Amino acid sequence: MSKHSYIVDPVLEAEYKKAPIDWTPTLMLILTPIAALILVPWFGLTYGFSVGAIVTMVLFIIWNGLGITAGYHRLWSHKTYEAHPVVRFFLLAGGTMAIQNTVFEWCAGHRIHHQHVDHPYKDPYSAKRGFLFSHIGWMMRSYPTSRYDFKNIKDLKQDPMLVAQDKYYGFWILLTNIGLPAVVGLAIGDLWGTLILAGLLRLVISHHVTFFINSLAHTIGKQPYTDTNTARDNWWLALITWGEGYHNYHHYFQMDFRNGIKWWQYDPTKWLIAGLNKVGLTSNLKVVSNLQIKQAELSMRFKTAQQRIQLFGYSIEDDMHDIKMNVQHEFEAFSETLERWKQLKEESIAMKKQALVQKKEDLQGSVKNTLHEIDLKLKSDFNQLETTLGDHSQRLEVILRDFKRKVRAAA
User: Fold this and answer.
1) Domain membership flag for residue 68
2) What residue spans of 70-151 are helical by DSSP H?
3) Considering the entire predicted model, what is its pTM?
């Protein structure tokens, strides 16, 4: 069975096959690229586009791109941070401009996607149903997975700003996609050029850039954190998707406001959120600890090492024996490290509970001293664990390099 195949349920497959065409998104997804292919070269060759129209298109692409990534995705779908109303309105307007449905619809579907990722009959844009389906096909028919009951977005329905967007969505679309480009176009003296570039072409580009996260980011790239789903990390995809290309990390640590967590990884959405935090416009930024990240990375590297030895080891069994033993020994040491981590967490909880009990009996400085000692011990022990995991990672890298050398020598 290939990695893109799945067990077919005849009843559900029949439902998918007879799903009626959803004409509104279908016509938009077909006609807007056709219109852009005709109007952009014709107008450009006949009249030419002003610099102002081109700059406006670029700025609008950035605006609606970040409206989806920082707004629809990381703020509202995953609640990875909180934002000032001004920031929320700015992101909401940009996300609306992208015409990818209301926040309610978008987030309801996305939360289901994470809950049932890759399930062919529960994930709304499951990669297991093929590239075209996960890219745009899932929007073009009224599939069973496209009908949401909105039970998973009760938190969002408490937000008056999102309620207003949902209620007046058609007006918001006209205002952001026609009204704003028209106003800017009149201001710079290039109405039609701005409407074609910043209105039409911008919409087509932003659509497919976002859709790549559902399709390409589940097809091409590496899996450094987990292989339990199809999500991939892809640096060049991150360049055009405002940092969303580090999708394997996101699917494993979805509550982190970051997607690119290495210093060299391109994630402008993360930089925007962190930058706004510096001036008090965002708060409660959620991050995964370095210890958890290293644990996930190292677990995958052990898994990869074992798979490679299984795949190639049979032809050079004698030479592979020491490598197998080294990997096994290192994995056992790694497991002991994780066990110490669990014990440390249990100890910290017990110690803090004890300190709270003492607080009821004694409100003097001894309680503060106890809590301070606990925090110092935790900090010291966690730093030591981080160092240990780093040592495991370096030793495993040496083992894998030796393994590659043995395989090349035997080839």
Assistant:
1) yes
2) 85-97, 103-115, 131-132, 138-140
3) 0.80
